[in-house]
Amino acid sequence: MTIRSIDRFVTSLWDWNILAGCFPRTCRPTDIDGMVEIGGHYLVMEGKGRGVEIPVAQRRMFSSMAYHNRRLPGLFAVIVFWGVPEARTVEQIQFWPSDPMPGNLDMLRDYVTAWAGFAEEHKWT
Fold this sequence. Notes:
Layout (H helix, E strand, L loop, with lengths): L5 H6 L22 E5 L2 E9 L6 H16 L4 E9 L4 E7 L5 E2 L2 H17 L4
Parallel strand pairs: 2-3
Antiparallel strand pairs: 1-2, 3-4, 4-5
């Protein structure tokens, strides 16, 4: 998604407090930076700024996706990457649940392209 108007983008963001009290315990919605579905396979992408940690609740969600991926191989692929968004640079990549490793934009693009090819070849729907 290309943001053409930052003002319009910011005013379109929802304040999830509108759902306060709807979920048990302290559950609240989290954002995901990107998600693609091809043939019943889901690629979840989360971009972080340099040095930004993944919140505990988001780590739990990604781990739950990885658990379901073991039961239904190929259901979810989760990739987290860190870098400098304004410069379009990627410095680190994590293929959940493995550990983060050094990376770059070309590696990210290669992984996403490979995932898309896999999803196209192994459609469930």
